[in-house]
Amino acid sequence: MRTKTNSEKNYIFEYYQAIVEGRVIVGQWIRLLYALIVEGLEKKEYFFDGKKAKTAIRFIENYCHHSKGRNDLLKLELWQKALVSVIFGIVDADGLRQFREVVLVIARKNGKSLFAAALIACMNYIDGEFGAETYVVAPKLDQAQIVFGCFWSLTQDEPELKARIKSKRDGLYIQETNSCIKKISFDAKRTDGLNPHLVICDEIASWVGDSGKKVYEVLKSALGSRKQPMIVCCTTSGYINEGIYDELFLRGTKFLLGDSKERRLLPVFYTIDDVEKWNDISEIAKANPNLGVSVSVDYMLEEIAIAEGSLSKKSEFLCKYCNIKQNSSQAWLPVKAVEKASGSPITMDDLKSKYCVAGIDLSQTTDLTSACLVVEKDEELYVISHFWLPSEKLGDATTRDGIPYQEMIDKGWLTLAGDNFVDYHSVFDWLVSAVREYELLPLVVGYDRYSSQYLVQDLEAFGFKTDDVYQGNNLTPVIYECEGLIKDGRVHIGDNALLKIHLLDSAVESDNRTQKVRLKKLSRNAHIDGVAALLDALCVRQKWFGEYGERLKNKE
Fold first, then answer.
1. DSSP 8-state secondary structure symbol assigned to residue 522
2. For residues 429-447, b (16+ Cβ closer than 10 Å) or e, as one string?
């Protein structure tokens, strides 16, 4: 592994090497992040400017002071040097910062406020931006004051920095570069019209719902006129659901799993991996990179002891020291696993005269409907999936989803059925044709309980055995089984691009109290109907395997 680039020490490679060798304990998201960064550098998707990284690190360690309990100069740990190197040292083909949107999720007492303050110092003292505007944003001014005050204190203990900055009633000013640093609270009127070089969003996990999302989007869109601006979120996990934190975490995990075209996002997620090991100090280290530095092991052991004696304290500990929300969502499958499941076309004729199970998702008859057959052959599972869409919805659906549905029709994966509602007879006919034309025999058909009862009655009248499936956290074992089979390469979906899209658009929401998960969309406009039908099929397969298992194996 290389350790030098442009004659400067590369802490990115050093940190990644320590991760690979097990000398540094990190969770899956940090491991994936640095693997992707190293891969991007080696493929020259972006470049490392060692001088810029070194300048930022040296500035922080030679000019920035602690602000609470002590006032000596900061000494960055390896993980911090690596992160500073990524933020300031990785550049695009024009030599400008590659990453413009940084999301740092890190446990309490790991120095995130001080780190944010050091970033403000770098962006205002050494970044070379004339007329820079920096905003520290939080729902309330008291919260914004934490990072803002930290930055002010950081400058006051260093004569050279102190001499160049002045405090006025509405903010801090550096006259020689005509720059300002201000704190602001949520107020749409106040955030409109800004021209920021840097935005620090503090504790986004506490930003409530639509108001938090709106403020974030306004601030992010305001960056457009700067050459290399940055918006940085520093936060621990929290309790707010469906807020900007959840949105950024989903975007970040999608990026880390390889299913995103974003190139400016930097998701730095220090979280534990195994919730069942929440009280294991080695697991906790994954969410606390400064364990043993800014937060002592003894302190953490005491917090664990308190949490073990109280459910409410345990929930708080999981949230604030492990970065696990009570209900948290993340992208489900790595893109490489889905690519492995994809391959050559799979037809009913390929699997003729086999026992199988079927699944139907008919809950949205005004939009996409899906059904599938799951056939075991040589201990591998083959999925034949089909979709239906009302003919009058084709144009709107294509525009809304950005998916070429006409191409999906031409490929044979999608059929127009009905005008404004999916005609359930089309689903019935598809299953019947599998039996009559190809002797594919579904021993059980799983359907979501919101399906048309007329369809269920017709299926049973024909002779199909049906079983309703509730699409909730009761599917936890089915979701885990499906995930494992796909990652192991034992599920094959052929060349069905629509099912592939649905797999990549799937997320799972976890409840850390019950350890259960449920399927959900990765984004509001995503579709996962094909995955819902697949889980229906796998659910009844799992449920009835004791009775039908030998036949479902299709052994000669």
1. S
2. ebbbebeeebebbbbbbbb
Does 7 or 270 have the greater pLDDT score? 270
Residue 444's SS3 state is strand
Closest CA to 439 of 354, 357, 356, 377: 354
- Indicate the length of the chain as a whole number: 556
What residue ranges in 300-368 does DSSP mark as E strands?
327-331, 355-361
**160 or 239, which is more confident:** 160
CA–CA gap between residue 470 and residue 454 (Å, rounded): 18
Under the banding of pLDDT at 50, 70 and 90, the label for residue 187 is low
Question: Domain map of the chain by residue range?
Answer: 4-331, 335-552
Instruction: Look at strands 133-138 and 166-168 and give their pairing.
Output: unpaired
Identify any residues that bridge with 468 across adjacent strands, giving them in sequence order: 447
> Mean pLDDT for the chain?
91
Measuring CA to CA, which residue among 107, 31, 28, 27 is closest to residue 286?
27
Q: How far apart are CA 30 and CA 287, in angstroms?
A: 10
Look up the CATH superfamily of 4-331.
P-loop containing nucleotide triphosphate hydrolases (3.40.50.300)
First to last CA, the chain: 50
pLDDT bracket for residue 1 (50, 70, 90): very low
Q: Judge contact between 166 and 130, C-beta under 8 A.
A: no
Whether 335-552 and 4-331 are alike in CATH topology: the answer is no
CATH code for the domain defined by 335-552: 3.30.420.240
pTM: 0.78
Over range 411-425, report the average pLDDT. 91
Contact indicator for 315, 326 with CB cutoff of 8 Å: yes
Q: Which helix (H) or strand (E) holds 462?
A: helix 453-462
Helix, strand or coil, per DSSP, at residue 274:
coil
Residues 6+ apart with CB under 8 A from 102: 87, 230, 231, 232, 233, 266, 268
For 391-422, the three-class secondary structure string (H helix, E strand, C coil) is HHHHHHHHHHHCCCHHHHHHHCCEEECCCCCC
- Nearest 5°: the CA angle 528, 530, 532 is 70
What is residue 291's predicted lDDT score, i.e. its pLDDT? Answer: 95
Residue 298 has pLDDT above 90, yes or no: yes
- Determine phi and psi for 136, rounding to 5 degrees: -100, 120
Instruction: Give me 331's structure tokens.
Output: 């992208």
User: Considering only 165-169, 255-259, 366-370, 415-419, which range has the smallest mean pLDDT?
Assistant: 366-370
